[in-house]
Design a protein that fits this description.
The chain contains 16 helices and no strands. By secondary structure, the chain is mainly α. Helix 9 packs parallel to helix 11 and helix 10 packs across helix 11. The protein is elongated and about 55 Å long. The termini are far apart. 28% of the residues are buried. Belongs to the RICTOR family. InterPro entries: ARM-type_fold, Pianissimo_fam, Pianissimo_N. Pfam families: RICTOR_N (PF14664).
Amino acid sequence: MGFPSWEMPPPGGRAPEGRARRGAFHPPSKALSRSRVGILFPPRPGRNDSGEENVPLDLTREPSDNLREILQNVAKLQGVSNMRKLGHLNNFTKLLCDIGHSEEKLGFNYEDIIICLRLALLNEAKEVRAAGLRALRYLIQDSSILQKVLKLKVDYLIARCIDIQQSNEVERTQALRLVRKMITVNASLFPSSVANSLIAVGNDGLQERDRMVRACIAIICELALQNPEVVALRGGLNTILKNVIDCQLSRINEALITTILHLLNHPKTRQYVRADVELEVGSLIFSCNFKI
């Protein structure tokens, strides 16, 4: 029995140019379009690329109803997945941006809101803790709210988020952003618990190759200019001077030294620079024969 004509090779053993032999294998193109990728690998329903569940937020509803639903799901210990809590925490920031910070519109007082958000900082998932820190940053808009946060001892949980595993960069970044927001709102209320964590990272971060060490040192300098007392009492000025010696970048060294000189230049802040420690280290910096 003969073979079909399309299976027989042409005379000479080669197919004519411009005609692809039927049944031959054609390699796929190098790049697939976005539409083809979506057809071949459709996304899971109800989730986005980060794994967060897409929790709907109807801004036409009463804000108090939306906030009640958010806080109930965030505060539940069982029955709500971490990714769903993450979605509700992100909806909280959207709600604040839409209606503002009025307790009358929110339908809850700030103490109740902070207590529920505080539970997010105790969650085992770092993504939920990071979202809780972000929600607190959006909530703190004035000194009165910051005082309520400190009254409920949330600062100890913030300090815990800073001094945690170095791999939790998203959580630590949100914690440092919240710390800077606290300084901006009212630096005189800055808690010593958070200052201790910042100084601890500043002291040991270089040896541990912590990527957040420079950010912590920058925040310590910023805090030293606005609240030098809390920095000096916790040994933060000595931390700044030690990093001048260890750092090899001239622009960073200039900023660190300028912070100390600013404190020395004003009689009210000069008292915080201890002559037996900070001045000795400072004189060592200017008297060394190596180039900083």
